[in-house]
Structure formats: C-alpha cells, structure tokens
Amino acid sequence: MKALLLIDIQNDFLPGGKLAVPEGDQIIPIVNQMQDKFDLVVATQDWHPANHQSFASNHIGKQAFEVTELLGMEQVLWPDHCVQGTSGAELSEDLNRHSIEAIFRKGMDPAIDSYSGFFDNGRLRSTALADFLLGKQVKEVYLAGLAGDYCVYFSAKDALLEGFQTFVIEDATRSIDVLGFERAKKDLQHMGGVIVHSNML
Ligand code: VGL
Ligand code: ZN
Question: What gap in Å lies between CA 192 and CA 123, rounded to an integer?
C-alpha cells in the first residue's frame, strides 16, 4: 500500500501567512492532481498553543529566525504561526481535502517543537502516525508539503527510520531555505530515501 503524506499545507505556510514559504502555493495544484494515485492520503497539521516555546515572541529580547536552545537542542525561533484555532492553522481551502483519511496534529506541547509528523524533535512522544500507517499495511510513503527543509525533511527521515520505503516528491514541496533543502535531499538519499518528481508517479 502506498500512502501520500501531506505535510503542513496550512495557511500560515502559504504566501500571506505568518511563516510563508516562498512559492508554497505552487505545490497545491500538483498535490491535488496526484492524490488519486495513492491508496491512502494522510495530512499533518502544525498546531501550536500561543505560548509555544518555538515562538520568538515567547522569549524576551529574541528575534524570529535567531537560533537558541530548547531542552538542550538547537532551536530556530519562529514568528508565531499555526496557533490552534486560528485561520492560519487551517489546511488551505485550495487543497483538495476530501480524500484525507486522517489528520495528525503536532507541536501541541509548549516546551518542545515537532517538525516531524511522527515524533517531536526530542523523540519523546509519538503521534501514532507510524502505527496508523502500519495498521493500513502501508509499505511506501510519499511526502509532499511544507516546508521541504523542515517538516517534510524531518518527517521523511522518521519515515525511513520507521522502516517505510520513503519518497519525497520534490516538485510538490517548497523550502524556507533552498540550500537547506539541497542538504536535506542529500541526507535523505544517504539514508535510503528516494527523491522523485510528480511526473514519475
Ligand atoms: C515548520 C517551522 C516551524 C514546517 C513548522 O512545517 O516546516 N517549520 N514549524
Ligand atoms: Zn511550527
């Protein structure tokens, strides 16, 4: 079984949003077209409380995009984004959402960030996404969404570590930092991941 994981296709990561990924909206028609090629479509949703410690606004004297430490781990401080219940946290209205069987929320613990759809950044807690996929006999996982150098990358990495055959659809993602995505792709390939184009599906 082949699953498509739609990572954080939320208003705040799209142009006009609080943490807009350049050209993020360009993936939406591609993602809409390819959904019927998969046995299962699952989405993730970044879903932070307002007091989340990844927000620069919750650290006196710090600016967005500064790097600090959280629980002994490097942490980029972000502009407030994907706050629970706000329109910025909603999946895009332009995204075809009717095939999405389940939505896994992440980033609810104010003390720790959660880029991956599988685990928080400290791997302290699981979202149960892996169990869900295993329960559906999924062997191959294809990733699309935002941002390529953060949540798509970390989700793909965890998919590999969880034993799924893992594919990143590179034209169905956009990144905060393009060079960061180049590094991410190399790392994923090194781990056994495969980078594909939507026209290869
Ligand atoms: C993301 C930064 C902070 C992402 C989420 O979806 O890639 N990036 N929170
Ligand atoms: Zn976030």
Answer: 21
